[in-house]
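Researcher: Here's a chain I'd like modeled. Treat it as a single chain, no partners, no ligands.
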Amino acid sequence: MTNKLSIQISTYNNIKLAKSLIDLLNKIADEFLIIDQSNQYNKNLLKKLSKVNKKIKIIDFIPLGYPELLRSFAIQNCKNNWVLLVDVGEKLSKEFIKKIPYYINKNNVDGFICRRIDKLSKGSYEIWQPRIFKKDKVVNLGFLHDLIGINGKTETIIDKNIFMIENIDYETNPEKLLRYFKIESYTSRLLYKDLLKISQKRSKLLFKSIKIYLKIFKKDEKTELSYFEYKIMNILYLLYLYISQKEKISFKGIKFKNWYNSKKFKFFSTTNISERKLQIEIKNEIDRYGGLIKYLSLDNALVITTLYNKLKDSKLKPEDNLINLLILRNRLGFNYFKLMKEDFNDIK
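Model: Modeled as a single isolated chain. Structure tokens:
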């Protein structure tokens, strides 16, 4: 018996890319399950597309700044046990697409680790990620850029002709960096060893500067950055990006000498002791619950539906939707389901 394939895609105001991906993979897919966090205009475009292609199933939700939070819910709602996870901006090699039916019908394997090539403005690098798997074997915590886990036997696809590729714009998109920094300040424990790992790939000068800082202040690499240190390091990183690739970074009219105080970078100039305490408290709670998805109950259909109905008209930025939700979760504690009766606009 031939196994059928569900393809899971998340989209945020990029319906053209989603359509291209669907057209590319339509022959091998039995179902496309799309988590759509777009505005109403783009939602309408996707719904029109779903009327033409009956394989498309849509789950509407509010934008939260990144797709990993909703992947568990999406994967578990796929109708087939075998799932291919694809980012909306990725392109798959022709050889990869041809081989997928073979992979999902292979015996005694629960998932496949695939080659992904990230193209930067200067060069590229490879990472390996689980992208084809049985949905009943998936483990996912929901953190930013967190890879799903597979609780079973995996196989790595080493064929160089089989890969997925995506253009990465983090280096030339300060707004996206800022969004990620803000999310991580509430959800992830950023240790100096993580910062060293990142900087070593990007800049020897930045890497050496951090090492000197640790030596002067006698800090261990396993130490978590304070809120102040976290912001300083982010500013240094943005300075590095500006200096090393000035011609590729658009600040949209913001002069470099005053960008620090501009509204676009207001996050960097709002050090607040009570806010830092709240961030640490939320991160500790997330750890106790075993990840963001469990903490926010984003594997629960009732919560997903209620949140969307309550917040679908929100004018906030995606990252602020998530932070407000984390604050509300922290406020309600075990009474989180009182969210159904709370007014989200009251959150400050």
